């Protein structure tokens, strides 16, 4: 009897596994077609200059409008795109769209694009980015590329050469999610970064948490001393805004200012913000 129950449980488990594997295969199949079917799209989260309080750029964030599941977040499909060898195509789509959209913004606005580790390992990356800049007409000085620490784990020599090739195009390189990896500080010395983005997990605890306040102040000071811009991510409250601004973060990003919005909305926000004060009144 126990044996039978065991078998039943096993059969149930097997069915469950099969169902899950089937769902994953369908999802993979869907993702392979997502680009061609134009289901991927890009939203933009505005960034604010902490000194002037005005927008100075936006981060491009990809989304997937799945036919049955609705909007799928990048956390749910970027890793799969990497496994399936689709990240090159996804990354190129986002870059081209971001550069095209940024061309319609006031000319002092920058656009930041997240890069996967696998994109950075592709030796043709700099040439591809150069092509997209030429194609869209965007100046390299208006493009930033964001990397997380896990992009830097392999092959220092090649990575450094690639980052220099990208910087030679005028592009700025940001270290995303700073402070969450194992050796964030040593990477700042080994790789040519222009900007540090303090991870939202530190900002979220501000201004009450003693450790987070110390860490955010220290990162902001470190960045300033190294001549880098420091961006605070995940700013949600006015108290957080005041704290990170006073600590020396030059750029702010978070729901307090705006959630990620569509290309046409970000353009309207930038146009409105760029108007001289007299024209607004
Ligand atoms: P990230 O680059 O660190 O982007 C910031 C994430 O934090 C975004 O989530 C954004 O919507 C969210 N966020 C911004 N402000 C706030 C806030 O005030 N509070 C909270 N709670 N969250 C905030 P999203 O769009 O879901 O992206 C998640 C991650 O997916 C990104 O983290 C990035 O690592 C990755 N990602 C997004 N787009 C791309 C892409 O085109 N290519 C690659 N390779 N990765 C991407
Ligand atoms: Mg980012
Ligand atoms: Mg981040
Ligand atoms: Mg992140």
From TrEMBL:
Residues 24-274 form the EAL domain. It comes from the Bacteria. This is EAL domain-containing protein. It comes from Plastoroseomonas arctica. The lineage of its organism: Bacteria, Pseudomonadati, Pseudomonadota, Alphaproteobacteria, Acetobacterales.
């Amino acid at each position: 009897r126990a044996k039978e129950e065991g078998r039943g449980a096993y059969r149930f488990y097997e069915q469950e596994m099969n169902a899950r594997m089937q769902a994953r295969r369908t999802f993979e199949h869907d993702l392979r077609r997502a680009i061609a079917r134009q289901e991927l799209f890009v939203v933009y989260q505005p960034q604010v200059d902490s000194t002037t309080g005005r927008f100075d750029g936006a981060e491009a964030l990809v989304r997937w409008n799945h036919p049955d599941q609705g909007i799928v977040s990048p956390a749910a499909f970027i890793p799969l795109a990497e496994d399936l060898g689709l990240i090159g195509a996804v990354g190129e789509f986002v870059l081209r769209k971001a550069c095209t959209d940024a061309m319609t913004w006031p000319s002092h606005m920058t656009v930041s694009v997240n890069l996967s580790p696998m994109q950075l390992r592709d030796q043709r990356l700099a040439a591809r980015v150069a092509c997209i800049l030429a194609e869209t007409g965007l100046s390299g000085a208006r493009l930033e590329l964001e990397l997380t620490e896990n992009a830097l784990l392999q092959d220092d020599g090649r990575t450094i050469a690639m980052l220099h090739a990208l910087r030679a195009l005028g592009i700025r390189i940001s270290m995303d999610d700073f402070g969450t990896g194992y050796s964030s500080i040593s990477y700042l010395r080994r790789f040519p970064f222009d900007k540090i983005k303090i991870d939202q997990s530190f900002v979220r605890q501000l201004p009450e948490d003693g450790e987070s306040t110390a860490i955010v102040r220290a990162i902001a000071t470190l960045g300033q001393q190294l001549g880098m811009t420091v961006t605070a991510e995940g700013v949600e409250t006015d108290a957080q805004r005041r704290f990170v601004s006073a600590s020396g973060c030059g750029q702010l990003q978070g729901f307090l200012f705006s959630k990620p919005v569509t290309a046409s909305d970000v353009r309207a926000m930038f146009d409105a913000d760029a108007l001289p004060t007299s024209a607004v009144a």
